[in-house]
Design a protein that fits this description.
Elements (H helix, E strand, L loop, with lengths): L4 H5 L3 H10 L8 H8 L8 H11 L18 H13 L10 H11 L18
Helix pairs in contact: 3-4
Length: about 130
């Protein structure tokens, strides 16, 4: 294949300035509503409290959508990615918000573009 995946996925310093110009945007739902949604999932002991703490930390989110945040300050997502990389012994790890986002990342990483043929099963998970 000969593609340099790291070059395609590296975040450059100028990206941080762009992120700062995009925000801040208010969340589409209030914090209280988001915390109520957490009750729908049966998290283990302490997990819901940790999520509530994260939600309460910032009044506003940066970026126009919830796909991926590139942030100049250290984040819990970066820390989680680093831990998972160590645990499974891989060079790269990328946390995303949905299956669609994961598929887009995989397609980009493989260098698949307009006009390329991708063969998939007829019945699959919706994304």
């Amino acid at each position: 294949m000969g593609t340099n995946i790291e070059a395609k996925t590296t975040v450059r310093e100028e990206s941080f300035a762009k992120v700062d110009k995009l925000g801040p945007y208010k969340t589409k739902i209030h914090k209280e509503e988001l915390i109520e949604l957490l009750d729908l999932w049966k998290f283990g002991p302490g997990i819901k409290e940790q999520l509530e703490k994260l939600i309460e930390q910032d009044d506003q989110l940066k970026g126009p959508h919830l796909f991926r945040y590139y942030n100049p300050r250290p984040s819990k997502v970066d820390a989680a990615e680093e831990e998972l990389k160590k645990k499974i012994g891989t060079e790269h790890c990328l946390a995303v918000n949905s299956c669609t986002s994961a598929l887009i990342c995989a397609i980009r990483a493989l260098g698949i573009g307009v006009g390329d043929e991708v063969i998939v099963p007829g019945y699959t998970f919706f994304a």
